[in-house]
Amino acid sequence: MGQLARDVVLTVNRLPGPHQATDVGRRREVLGGKGANQAVALSQLGATATLLAVAGDDDVGDDLLAQARRDGIDVTYVVRRSGIPTGLIIEVLEPQGRWRYLQHLPEPTLLTEADITAAANAFQRMDAVLVQLQQRPAAALAAARQGQTAGSLVVLDGAPADDEHRRSLLAAADVVRADDREAELLTGIRSDNPDKVRKAAEDVLDTGPALIVLGLGPIGNLFVWRHQHWGSGSLLTPLSSDKAVDTTGAGDALTAALTVALLRGDTPASAASYAVAAAGATVRHPGGRPALTDEMLQARIRDGVAPTN
Predict the structure, then answer these.
(1) CB of 50 within 8 A of CB of 58?
(2) Per-residue model confidence as pLDDT tens digits over 216-240
(3) Is 14 helix (H, G, I), strand (E, B) or coil?
(4) Is the Cβ–Cβ distance between 183 and 159 less than 8 Å?
(5) DSSP 129-191
(6) What are phi and psi of 175, to 5 degrees?
(7) Is the pTM for the entire model greater than 0.90?
């Protein structure tokens, strides 16, 4: 459950000043948005992915859904809103991986509780439900509860910013993944203090989730878990050794790969290596669209490109 948008990536050597122009070195237009990126990664890694998102009733929406079908994604439950444009995200990428987003994601491109209710049949047959928390909190909670009721692995991507829904969302979740900014919102602790973040993450586990993954910026990713089958533990996993061309989409790839690994029965430590390998592979190219295979990730772990645990 998440965003679907037309994703335009423009690489430039420098940003123009006011009343100036600059040449674009590379232009890439693809299916994007956090929900779609995760669905693409899931499909690439062998899962059968169904996307719940919103598209307009325009030609852009037609083109993006056609691309999703070619990617092996079931788009039966994508909502087509009449009279609105499909979401647009423009990324301007400078050298050294500095990016800026221009996005047009008006309110009607977000899912509603009614959209979740209309897709109730889909939730009954899912092994996992990935919920993007940049959606409306009430809709995200409805999706998480649908997954919980169905016995699915419920994965939250982001941090519940709405205090009204925060406790209920965490209570419905099995896994929570947050980037460094979201991790500080979730724990109240700066990402440059891993020990304090770990303790705060253990407190979050008390509210419901079995596994929390927190980005700590250049330090890496902190995995903290407590589960009857896994026991209790934590792991600070450094970033892969890849040169980062663009960090866009790394978190989406990590979330998708982590989900695949957990569904096949990997331990948290093994799933962490697999997830970090996926994130590292994604930062090597401009844009957030992943380009993954299971064989690639296993090779990256085996060859030491991604850290092993």
Answers:
(1) no
(2) 999 999 999 999 989 999 999 998 8
(3) coil
(4) yes
(5) EEEETTS-HHHHHHHHHHHHHHT-EEEEES----HHHHHHHHHH-SEEEE-HHHHHHHHSS-T
(6) -135, 140
(7) yes
